[in-house]
From TrEMBL:
Residues bound to NADP(+): D77, G125, A126, G127, G128, A129, N149, R150, T151, T152, E153, K154, M212, G236
Reactions mediated catalytically: shikimate + NADP(+) = 3-dehydroshikimate + NADPH + H(+)
Residues of the active site: K65
Binding-site residues for shikimate, renumbered to this chain: S14, K15, S16, T61, N86, D101, Y214, Q243
Molecular function in Gene Ontology: shikimate 3-dehydrogenase (NADP+) activity
EC number of the protein: 1.1.1.25
Protein role: Involved in the biosynthesis of the chorismate, which leads to the biosynthesis of aromatic amino acids. Catalyzes the reversible NADPH linked reduction of 3-dehydroshikimate (DHSA) to yield shikimate (SA).
Protein name in UniProt: Shikimate dehydrogenase (NADP(+))
Source organism of the structure: Thalassotalea fonticola
Length: 273
């Protein structure tokens, strides 16, 4: 039985073991998938120990995505551009790193019939999650990706890294000057029930609002967007399942079906199952 796990700290609430167990059952793959919570200083030693114990791959979540990248012998373009790895594969004595967050986001948007081609996208946040989705968003040929962050210099530095005329940075006060087709909240603000300082004038009835955070109820940000005209608000549960499906595909070369797994997780979140 091939062994996988997810590293994170904290990790108790992680849904990854449940998601991968459902994918494995559905595709009849004989795998085990557990979770591990190392201290920050012990992360690399724990990965090495897992490889020695026969581990085939691992997911990596906060705060280890940058350390995971440093351990890799080979990175995909999307992992290198993110500066963060959420999927490790161990083969032939090498460590391979990928970042599947962006594919998870783009596929979730598509599953809601949100097309990104020629659209103006506002990306809020400049942390690992925001970095991870820029290249996959660019691959959809948007008109522009505008990055906004509480610490504006980080947004400017992130935009500059891409050196692409389609990517720029603004401050939150400047969001009053224009409207956006899609707004993606890649900040952790909703986890502390706070709202980024977005100007409501930038939302129209056609603006799609996405929050990477998910929960039993709509996040504070998505509630706020609904109150300010947005008619389509989407939380990050589909992105979570989508990034897991892409990791599963990388490891097992089988694409799992996502909608049933997503429905089951949604029910669990809402206490129905
Ligand atoms: P980081 O800690 O790397 O970055 C946090 C970002 O949020 C920074 O840009 C920070 O701004 C900003 N921020 C925090 N609080 C506020 C606030 N009150 N107002 C405005 N901006 C704020 O986190 P990650 O990038 O790794 O993750 C971001 C979120 O995305 C997390 O909540 C995570 O759970 C979620 N996520 C969801 C995934 C999914 O599959 N659904 C996958 C990956 C992440 P500043 O730079 O100024 O501090």
């Amino acid at each position: 039985m091939d062994k996988y796990l997810v590293f994170g700290n904290p990790i108790a609430q992680s849904k990854s073991p449940l998601i991968h167990q459902m994918f494995a059952e559905q595709t009849q793959q004989d795998i085990s998938y557990s979770k591990k919570q190392p201290e920050e200083v012990d992360f690399k030693a724990e990965v090495s120990a897992f490889i020695i114990a026969g581990g085939k791959g691992a997911n990596v979540t906060a705060p280890f995505k940058e350390q995971a990248m440093q351990m890799c012998d080979q990175l995909t373009d999307r992992a290198a551009s993110a500066g963060a790895v959420n999927t490790l594969s161990f083969a032939d004595g090498n460590i391979y790193g990928d970042n599947t967050d962006g594919v998870g986001l783009v596929n979730d948007l598509k599953s809601h019939n949100v097309q990104l081609t020629n659209k103006t996208i506002l990306l809020m946040g400049a942390g690992g999650a925001a970095r991870g989705v820029i290249l996959p968003l660019l691959a959809e040929y948007p008109k522009q990706i505008i990055i906004v962050n509480r610490t504006t210099e980080k947004a400017e530095q992130l935009a500059a890294r891409f050196n692409d005329e389609k990517i720029c940075a603004i401050s939150y006060s400047e969001t009053a000057k224009t409207t956006f087709d899609v707004i993606i909240n890649a900040t952790s603000a909703s986890l502390s029930a706070s709202l980024p300082d977005l100007n409501p004038a930038c939302i129209t009835t056609n603006t799609v609002c996405y929050d990477m955070v998910y929960g039993a109820e709509l996040s504070p940000f998505l509630k706020w967007c609904s109150q300010h005209k947005s008619q389509l608000v989407i939380d990050g549960l589909g992105m979570l399942v989508g990034q897991a499906a892409e990791s599963f595909f990388i490891w097992r070369k089988v694409k799992p079906q996502q909608s049933q797994v997503l429905a089951k997780l949604r029910n669990k979140l809402q206490g129905i199952d």
